[in-house]
Design brief:
Elements lengths: L2 H22 L2 H20 L8 H22 L9 H5 L2 H5 L25 H10 L34 E11 L7 E10 L10 E2 L5 E3 L2 E9 L12 E10 L4 E11 L6 E6 L1 E2 L18 E10 L2
Antiparallel strand pairs: 1-5, 1-10, 2-3, 2-6, 4-5, 6-7, 7-9, 8-10
């Protein structure tokens, strides 16, 4: 069997697995499977090196990815007016299985999913304010460092060179507790260090996308190297952790909640910090807890001192 046929077989198996979960009412598992397959199809559509599929076939794969995203969105929002039904999705099984020979018109009037848009800080809150009437956006400047487009592998930076008498801080992000942890798509964490006015003191970093979800926890298990010696952090500075996830219905990456750690909390060992409602308030003046439930961000700190 050729490599392309193996790929198609793998896609078909993933599609069947997702629709089976959907049929059985295992919605979290169905959403995960649909999202994994949608990303695989999008990767193929956006690949410039692949000659396995014609441009027309790539368009069809892109439309299938759109339908997977739509079904996933319907499962996450039961009151959605744009509901995409399971029986509609099942009509695509024959197409994905026979993509190399399929030459009929696509059964639904949908377009391939565009490249995912990562919004700059503040933009996502503005979009969501229209629907959710959130509180005023948190003020903070990001001018000191250029904007980044987070990739699935993250943008974490290596540890700084040691200096005599100076201390470096490594923070392991272990896990975050959320009541709807299993439904968060492509979750990752953005880490920044801000002064009292919300101005960046360090380059902003993103973790890789988390891959493990368990009950009410999303596990990261990644080390973040703070890009400034502890002794050089000004009084009143804080380290912020913004939890972000992808919203297929709105097609952008959104901040769900945030947490922060102040300078007097820097000490070796584990620490558990509270989660706050978005938008991120870098000035820490109007903080609202995300939930009364005992759900937190779990971290572990390691201090490196060069004597």
């Amino acid at each position: 069997m050729s490599d392309v046929n193996k790929t198609i077989q793998k896609w078909h198996a993933s599609f069947k697995k997702g629709t089976d979960f959907d049929s059985w009412g295992q919605l979290v598992e169905a959403i995960d499977e649909y999202q994994i397959l949608a990303r695989q199809l999008q990767k193929e559509v956006q690949s410039t090196n692949s000659s396995d599929f014609t441009e027309e076939q790539k368009k069809t794969l892109g439309r299938i990815a759109t339908c997977l995203e739509m079904r996933s969105a319907s499962l996450q929002c039961t009151q959605s007016k744009e509901e995409f039904k399971l029986e509609d999705l099942k009509k695509l099984e024959t197409i994905i299985k026979n993509i190399l020979t399929y030459n009929k018109e696509f059964p639904f009037d949908v377009q391939p999913v565009p490249l995912r848009k990562i919004l700059a800080p503040g933009e996502e809150e503005n979009l969501e304010l229209e629907e959710e009437e959130d509180a005023a956006a948190g003020a903070g400047s990001t001018e000191a460092f250029p904007p980044r487009a987070p990739a699935s592998q993250g943008t974490l930076l290596p540890r700084l060179p040691s200096e005599p008498g100076m201390t470096l801080l490594t923070i392991k992000i272990e896990k975050i507790g959320l009541k709807d942890a299993g439904q968060c798509i492509d979750p990752y964490m953005t880490i920044s260090v801000k002064d009292l006015n919300g101005v960046d003191l360090n380059p902003v970093q993103d973790t890789p996308v988390a891959t493990r979800k368990e009950d009410t926890y999303i596990h990261f298990s990644v080390d973040v190297e703070i890009q400034r010696h502890v002794e050089k952090l000004p009084k009143g500075a804080a380290i912020f952790f913004e939890f972000k996830h992808y919203k297929p219905k709105k097609r952008f990456t959104s901040t769900k909640c945030f947490a922060f750690m102040e300078m007097d909390e820097i000490k070796p060992g584990p620490i558990v910090i509270e989660l706050y409602k978005k938008p991120t308030d870098f000035k820490r003046k109007k903080l609202q807890l995300l939930t009364k439930k005992p759900l937190y961000l779990h971290l572990h700190q390691t201090l490196h001192k060069d004597s």
